[in-house]
Amino acid sequence: MHRDSRPMNDYDVVVIGGGAAGLSAALVLTRALRQVGVVDAGQPRNAPAAHMQGFLGSDGMAPRELLARGRTEVAGYGGHLVSGRVDAITPHPAHPDAGLMSFDIRLDDGSAMRSRRVLVTTGLRDDVPDLPGVRERWGRDLLHCPYCHGHEVRDQPLGVLGGPPEALAHAHLIRQWSHDVVYFTTGQPLTTTQREQLAARAIGVVDGPVARLVVEEDRLTGVELATGQVVPRTAVFVRPRFVPNDTLLTDLGCATHDNGWVAVDATGRTSIPGIWAAGNAVNPRAQVITAAGEGSAAAIAINNDLVDEDLPLAVTSFRLGLPL
Known about the structure:
This is NAD(P)/FAD-dependent oxidoreductase. The chain has 8 helices and 17 strands.
């Protein structure tokens, strides 16, 4: 596996982000005999999680193991893996007379790469409540995704922290996995209808602000209210605010949706020719298996795009009797 700090200069595709989406794309592209570079900062979103669930054929695998296998596979097909962070992407005229562009990718160590296409798979970060215990338990027994972790905490005393509008719907969803669910309003008012709906599904309601998560012997045991009351719970779900790591895309001027997220088509193509994006950087709902699929779809589209670009150049060379 290539690990040197001075990567090759020229690539067909540079993938920025070495998670499931990025490595899946790199695997498809290297198998298509493309020159591929993958730049990764080594900070995957699911790093706190001990196991990855719901990924067909890899259920229960540690996230770090999946990525390690992916890196080995990509390197085995000739992919070039670079540890680092990308500071900027700059369009660069490749064949001005043909209207073609390439991209200069500048890394935080001062090195640079040049590529015909760029795929951004930099993920997102979870903005969680600023409460004592929250960040320490994140991904362990303070959870977000019931489809990722619900089965592992099924039938246990569960809590759901209120706050954002989606939190109430989250509580009804969590109820699928346990008969003992408590919704903590965190001081946010509930309507009569909302309280009736919670009561109809036997979801308990605890009003008032939450002070902290109670942790004993490295495990969550309850939720403490501002009054000092402790409600015993063994796991708590929260609906974080998703913040995309999309600065590289927005700095390029990629078009966005009304909600501020960068817009892509079904293959991950952005509004900037030559720039693709996949995974959580543009899709907050993408799980690991979804992100891998989006990376694969983007890779196929990128390779097809490169073939389409090469065709008229090949015809011109053929007419001039030049070697391909």
